[in-house]
Amino acid sequence: MAHISASVYTSHVPAIGATIDMGKTAEPYWQPLFKGYEFSKQWMKDNQPDVIFLVYNDHATAFSLDMIPTFAIGTAAQYTPADEGWGPRPVPMVQGHPELASHIAQSVIQQDFDLTIVNKMDVDHGLTVPLSLMCGQPEAWPCPVIPFAVNVVQYPVPSGQRCFNLGKAIAKAVKSFDANLNVQIWGTGGMSHQLQGPRAGLINKDFDNAFLDQLIADPAALAQKPHIDYVREAGSEGIELVMWLIARGAMSDVNESKAQPHVAHRFYHVPASNTAVGHLILKNA
């Protein structure tokens, strides 16, 4: 059977991708941030999965205000890096895993979650920046990727509890796939940031680190945090953190096992283009 071996959590700030693409990672402003991912790139080489299930939010690339799916799973064989106004990022084509993606869609929908199935879409920085942070600049990404887009852009957005429960459903789906696949699930976005209005530039270090603490130790309680807390404490875009709960809900300690996951790496840095950057790697016991 397939199994989820680890979960990865990271911000997906678009300026990070631009910095990588322009070869500016060693500049004084950016060097401390990329140093925090040096461990992660080596860990990724040492713990290479067969498939990455990557939870992210689309930034008006594949979807728009004309059509806003709450949860959308990519079932295509490949995905083109999107042109977000400055040309597509010079990164590899993203190869999909249609068989596992279709199986997850079937299983999760039968568990009463309504998913939008997407057979063709481009993927933006929400997906490609995490891959770059974890994998560097390879000629090809190390494994297939299943994109899973969550609407955290236009209200109404899904609750943390809904996302946490969805993660459990995804874990059950992966476990029932009849192939020996090592799957990682990644939750991206966040941490605290606000891009507009009087509070533009808001960063809340205390909230972010408390979120990381609780994500590790008590995710079930964290899942009950109401939307207003994210908006008040982490800024209007801080709601992206509910996507981390999808990845956390897929870990074994909240499903079939009681053993706490191993914290392989934890990193936090501010600022990165007026945004707090958080990063965590949890490995199933």
Q: What's the short version?
A:
By secondary structure, the chain is of the alpha/beta class.
Task: Describe the fold and architecture.
The radius of gyration is 17 Å and the shape is globular. It is built from ten helices and ten strands. It has one domain: LigB-like (Protocatechuate 4,5-dioxygenase, Chain B, 3-Layer(aba) Sandwich), CATH 3.40.830.10. It has helices at residues 14-21, 31-35, 38-46, 98-110, 125-135, 160-175, 205-217, 219-222, 227-234, 242-249; strands spanning 3-10, 51-56, 71-74, 78-79, 94-95, 116-118, 145-150, 182-188, 262-269, 277-283. Helix 1 (14-21) packs across helix 5, helix 4 crosses helix 6 (160-175) and helix 6 (160-175) runs parallel beside helix 10. The mean pLDDT is 97. It is an alpha/beta fold and 285 residues long. An eight-stranded mixed sheet has the order 6-3-7-2-8-1-10-9, sandwiched between helices. A two-stranded antiparallel ribbon has the order 4-5. 33% of the residues lie in helices and 19% in strands.
Fill in the keyword field for this structure.
33% helix; 285 residues; alpha/beta; Protocatechuate 4,5-dioxygenase, Chain B; globular; 8-stranded mixed β-sheet
